[in-house]
Model the fold of this input.
Amino acid sequence: MRLHSLITLLAAGLLTASCATGNHAVSFSEARNYFFRNDARQPAGLLIIRSQAELEQYFGEAAFMGKGGEPTKIDFSKQFVVAKMLPVTNHLTNISLQRIEHSGDKHLTLVWHIAVNDTPQSYSMQPMKLVVLDKKYEGYRVSEKEE
Done:
C-alpha cells in the first residue's frame, strides 16, 4: 500500500511540475501618446527598446490637453518596451495586444489582433503599439503571432 501511495504522489508531483513549465500569461501595459518619427528607419519586425535615448530615436511624444494627454512615463531601470509598427496606410488600422504568453524556455510570444477598415481614409496613418514590460523579461526571446 505504501509503494502505491508513493508512486501516486510522485506522479502527481511530476504532473504539477510539467504544468508549471507550460505557457502562462505575462502582465503588460501600453504606452500611450507617442508617434513613430518620420525620420526613423522602419524596423523589419518587433523593436525592443531598452533606454530613453533609444525610445527618442524612434518615437516622439504626442501630448495633448486634458485628462490622459501626457505620454506614458516609462522607467527604463525597471521596464523595457516592445514596439510593433506597420507600414503607413490610408486605412484605419487598430493593433491590439491580446496577451503575452511565456513559456519555460525564456520565450515570450506576443499575440496580436489587427483590424483593418476596408474604406480608405482621406489621410494616412502609421499603425503602432508600444507595450511596456517588466525588466525581468528583457533577456527573453520575443516572437509574435496574429490571432
